[in-house]
Amino acid sequence: MTAARIRSTVTGDASSSAHARPQAPRGGSRLPSVSIALGTLSIASFWVFGLGFVLGVSAVVCGALATSRSGVADDEPASLRALLGVVAGVAGITVSAIALFPVLEYL
Description:
Blueprint: H1 3-11, H2 31-44, H3 51-68, H4 70-74, H5 76-104
Protein name: DUF4190 domain-containing protein
Transmembrane segments: 36-66, 78-104
Keywords: Membrane, Transmembrane, Transmembrane helix
């Protein structure tokens, strides 16, 4: 070990160490990813009576909640994932509604 590294270990001053790196915050919000997953499932399951609609609404709610959080709003990739989840949820709602209209006359 070098003298500077020993000194920084003893004093607790990690700024003088050459190997000290700032740690990125971990454990970000999972809501943007959940929103995308629910939106994708809502588009894929539009043909199941009502399931695509419910999953689409859930995707929109998760995406809206995610964008309202400050941690997601400051993180551009997470914000874009949340927006993509909202768009996928709206698409799932739309496709489910279009598939539901012809069935309504038989109910």
